User: Fold this.
Amino acid sequence: MCALEATDSSLPTRTLTFDGCVNFRDLGGYRTTDGFQIGWRRLFRADGLNKLTPEDDRRLIELGVATVIDLRTVDEATQRGRFPVDRVPVRYVDLPLTDVLPATEELPSWREASYVASRYSEMVSKGAPALTGAFEALAVSDSLPAVFHCSAGKDRTGVLSALILAFLGVPDEIIVEDYSLSAAAMERLLDRLKAEYPDSVAEVERYAPAILQVLPGTMEEFLAAMRAEYGTYESLAGHLGVAGAVDRLRSTVLVEA
Assistant:
């Protein structure tokens, strides 16, 4: 049985369908090396949450989402819109993981796993305050269920998700598999971008695949780089100053496997 998709129909689904986003997933069910697993419907990862429909709002309220962490740049949030806290009351935490999006001239390099992995490593070094803030926000009492997101739900969200899973004790190969689940969602996102920008389809087709593609090797190289630089994930958590937050998070999201 695949580690990601359980065959038991009584278990919750990992991918949740919304009208306003394409990459909303549950991190529940992943097992740790010490005999626990992440509880279902406690931690979610997603793409942009600025185009939610009324039905989406109702779904999030039913899920009981209490915290939304926005990893997008200030410009993205301002231009595209933020989470609708007026319709779905949550604790909204604005934590840009990068200052700017990749420049057009960089996009061809985003087809290369090693280049993207290096950018992920930069997010950890340069975006450390945002990552620390995210862990602290997730570890606050009554913060769960929580969802963290960026625009595509793949890169910035992928980095935070990888660190969460790693710090909780989920094996590297499962982290890579979870990252790879975004591939199908990126196809849906590309279709959505074409529909949203009908006058610029050629431009979307030219540049979007470079930044939307998902290569397992990217996450493998990123995790290897973190181990090479920090030795252990515990050391990395200590470097980010989140060891205490991780301990609190373990107590709220992990259950017996």
